[in-house]
Amino acid sequence: MMDFENFGTSTAVGAPLTQVEKAAAVLLAMGKGVAGKLLKYFTQSELQAIIAAAQNLRAIPPHELIDLVNEFEDLFTEGAGLMDNAKMMEGILEEGLTPDEVDGLLGRRAAFQAYETTIWDRLQDADPVFVAKFLLNEHPQTIAYILSMMPSAFGAKVLLEIPDDHRADIINRTVNLKDASPKATVIVEARVIEMINALDAERNSIGSNKVADLMNELEKSQVDEMLASLETVSTESVKKVRPKIFLFEDVLYMPQRSRVSLFNDVSGDIITAALRGASMELRESVLSSIGARQRRMIESDLAAGDQGVNPREVAIARRSITQEAIRLAAAGQIQLKEKEEERQAA
């Protein structure tokens, strides 16, 4: 803590300086390097008083300043000016304090400034797959504007994650993009803030994602047993984990169109192995999603029975299908479950 009372009375010509004004004058004269190191010796209230004094400090002739800082003569540079006092004090503060501390002392709206200057930069550390999936819920013109504002390297990654049937239209809109109205900009940036919040929420759910990843490697009976056990400890944890688990049996709850997309590139051997031991309902759900010729071949293989089938091969086949489903869903190409309104309509 600094003692303002230790400063003597100025004998210079001009309005007498208060103790706080003298402290401000000395700091301004020292330069940022030295003055910044001294800031830690002031209390918060003293710093606020010095800032206020610096902003209204009168011009101080060099000879008057020498009287005030005679013990610091080697640090004083004649002609330092002391005219743009507020700007110099800000520079000194930035040398010795953190940005948040400077913003607090100067009364800045730090949060608003961070929003203005970093809203787009904050996206570049995100998962481009997640961002692309989020953007696909928006109008193509909105997507084009957001892509144009993103850092180029990250925007390119996001663009690659957008499905082919949407990509050309979005690129065309971006190429021919015109200046957005202030009102439209506010609306779009509000959506970007929502996306950032969603990203933050996703990062905060690392634990539930990891547990879901582990359970996705298990059989349904094992997962059901673990979830039942977890529910005895925390129902809330089950609610966080269960929606992120996708097992082979969950193929039943996929929209038909998504099932067709999923099995379109899965080989017949893998489908056959995955359907070994499956319920008739699940078999029909899968077989109705593939071509007639492939279906007849798989049905013929399944009719031979499951004798001699290695359970490990069945598990591997099912896991490869569920992993592909999770990948396609993350890219926004399929849905893992029907939306509520679609189920009600059905």
UniProtKB/TrEMBL annotation:
It is found in: Bacterial flagellum basal body; Cell membrane. Residues 131-197 form the Flagellar motor switch protein FliG middle domain. It comes from the Bacteria. Pfam families: FliG_C, FliG_M, FliG_N. Residues 17-109 form the Flagellar motor switch protein FliG N-terminal domain. GO terms for molecular function: cytoskeletal motor activity. Keywords: Bacterial flagellum, Cell membrane, Cell projection, Chemotaxis, Cilium, Flagellar rotation, Flagellum, Membrane. The keyword 4Fe-4S does not apply. GO terms for biological process: bacterial-type flagellum-dependent cell motility; chemotaxis. It is a peripheral membrane protein. One of its GO terms (cellular component) is plasma membrane. InterPro entries: Flg_Motor_Flig, Flg_Motor_Flig_C, FliG_a-hlx, FliG_M, FliG_N. The keyword Cell membrane applies. Belongs to the FliG family. PANTHER family: FLAGELLAR MOTOR SWITCH PROTEIN FLIG. This is Flagellar motor switch protein FliG. It comes from Shinella granuli.
